[in-house]
Amino acid sequence: MxxxxxxxxxxxxxxxxxxxxxxxxxxxxxxxLAPQLQLPDWAPRLITLVLLVGFPIAIVMAWVFERAxxxxxxxxxxxxxxxxxxxxxxxxxxxxxxxxxGQSSLPGDTGGADDGPTSxxxxxxxxxxxxxxxEFFSDGMTEELLNVLAKIPSLKVxxxxxxxxxxxKGGDVRAIGAKLGVSHxxxxxxxxxGPQVRVTAQLIRVADGFHVWSETYDRELKGVFALxxxxxxxxxEQLKGSLAVDAAPAARVGIDPVAYDAxxxxxxxxxxxxxxxxxxxxxxxxxxRAPDFAAAWANLSLAREVAYWTTTPLQRxxxxxxxxxxxxxxxxxxxxxxxxxxTLHALGNVARGDHRYADAERLYLRAIEAEPTxxxxxxxxxxxxxxxxxxxxxxxxxxxxxxxxxxxEIFWFRIADLAATLDRQALLDExxxxxxxxxxxxxxxxxxxxxxALYHGRIDEARAGFAAARARAPAxxxxxxxxFRWSQGDxxxxxxxxxxxxxxxxxxxxxxxxxxxxxLFFTSVAAAGNSHxxxxxxxxxxxxxxxxxxxxxxAKQLLRDYGFEAYWREKGWPALCRPVGTDDFECGAPAGExx
Length: 595
Fold this sequence. Notes:
- The chain has helices at 3-9, 12-37, 42-64, 81-102, 135-150, 160-164, 173-180, 224-243, 257-271, 276-289, 294-310, 313-319, 322-336, 341-353, 357-370, 376-387, 391-404, 409-422, 425-438, 444-455, 459-472, 474-487, 495-504, 509-515, 518-525, 537-541, 553-561, 564-571; strands at 65-68, 71-74, 119-122, 126-127, 156-157, 184-193, 196-205, 211-220, 577-580, 584-587.
- By secondary structure, it is α/β, with parallel strands linked by helices.
- Helix 13 runs antiparallel to helix 14.
- Residues 103-116 have low confidence and may be disordered.
C-alpha cells in the first residue's frame, strides 16, 4: 500500500482539511473581535501560532489513532511513520518561523516594523454627513489628527498631500501602505449632525491588513480637540505596546465650534492659495471667537504674507500693510504655543520680512526639527536660500520638500524658478511636468517657461510663451502681457499706467529692466509698501537681465538696507558678490568675467 493510500485510509487528509477550515474561521473571528475586546496587538498572532502548531499535531494524532467501537486505539503502521513525523516537524518549524519572522509585538519587544522606524499614514476620513459642504470638516479632522501624531518624536508620519492622493479612491490598505512606505494605516469616517459629531477610526497593520484597533466616538463639536487628542493617544498606545512609540502629546483645551469651522475653511482656502482676503477674514473671525487658538493666529500670520503674491493691488491696499499684521499674529501664536512648528514658521516669516535672514533661517530649521512632516515651512526655507544666492542649498531643500509632498504645484515652482534663473532647461522641464501633474489647470505650468525667457532677455521665446499662456488663461496673464508689450515699446499700452504698475509691484521690475529704464527698475525693486518681501531683491537683481544693475551704487545700498550684506558676512557670499575690506562689498561679475 502506498503512503498516500495509507493517509486516506487513516482519514489524515479529511482531518487535515477539516482542521484548516475550522482554524481559518477562528482566525477570522479573532481578527474581527480583537479590536472591540481591546486585545493586545500580539494576542491575535499568538492565537494564530497556536492554531498553526496544532495542525501538525492533529495530523499525527489522525495517523496514530483509529476510532473503534470501544473508543480511540493506537494502530501500528507498517510504513510511513518516519515520513509523517518529518512532515509534522517541518510544519511546526515553519509555523514558529513565520511567527518569529513577522512578530514585532511580543510583550517587551522594542523592535520596529521591518526593523525600520515606526510609521503611520492617516488616510482622508470619509465624510458621511450627507452634505458635501462638510467635506472641509472631514478633511480638517484628517489633517489635525495627522498633525497631532506628527508631534510624537519617534513616529514617522506620511505627509498630508501624499495621503490625500488616495482620497475617495479606496483600495487595499496593504498596497496603499506599501506605496506610502509606512507600517500602519489609520482610516475612518466623520458624521456631523448639528452640534454633534461621530468619528470612527481604526488602525490597520500594513503587513497583513490586520485591524489592530477600532473605535467609534460620539462627541459634541466643542470637544473636537479633545477628541482628536484622544484618538491620537489611543493610536499611540497601540503602537507603544507593540513598537515602543512614545506617548502622545498632552491634550488641548476645547474650541468654539464656529471658530473651528472658520479656521478649517480658511486653512483649506489658504492651502489652495485661493481668495486670500476671504482667508484672512475667516481666520480673523476664528481668533476673535477663540482668542487662545494658537494655530489660527499662526495661520493668520502666514496668510497675510502669502496675500502679497496672490492679490491685486487694490486688494492689498484694502488689507493694509502686511508686516504689522504678520508680526502681531505671530507674536500672539508664540505667546500661546511657542514651540509649535507653525508658530516657528510664522516667526521666521516675520524675521524674513524684517530682513533678518539668518534669524529666519534658524527659525525655519527649528520648525523643521519640531515637525519634520510639516511642509509649508520647507517651501519658505528653500525660497529664502534662493533669495540670498545659495542655489545648491535651495535646490537640495526644495528636493526634500517635493520628495515629501510631490503633488503640490507651488512646491515644484520653487525648483522651476531656480531653474529659470540659472537657465537649466532640463531641470525646468522636470519641474513643469510635475506642476502639470499636481495642478493641470495651474498657470505656473505655462508661466515658468515664460519666466526663463524673460530672465534671460530672449524676447521671441518670451512672446511665444505668452501666446501659449494667454490661450490657457487670458485673465490671469493679462497684466503681465500688458507689461511685456510695454517693455517692448508697444505704443498701444498706456505708459503712465504701466509705470505706476511697475512702481507698485516688485515682480514687475523685470519689465523695467527689459525696457532699459534703470530708475524705474530700482523704484520697482524697492516698491513702496513691499519691504516685507525685500528678500526678493537680490533674486531680481541676480537674474541675467538684472545683473547689469548690480554694480550701480543704488544696488549696493538696497542690498545693505535689506539685510543681505549682514547675512552674507555671517553665512558666506554668493557668486556675484564679494567683500571689499572689512566694511565694504561689491557685486557684479568678477573681474575678467564681465561681458
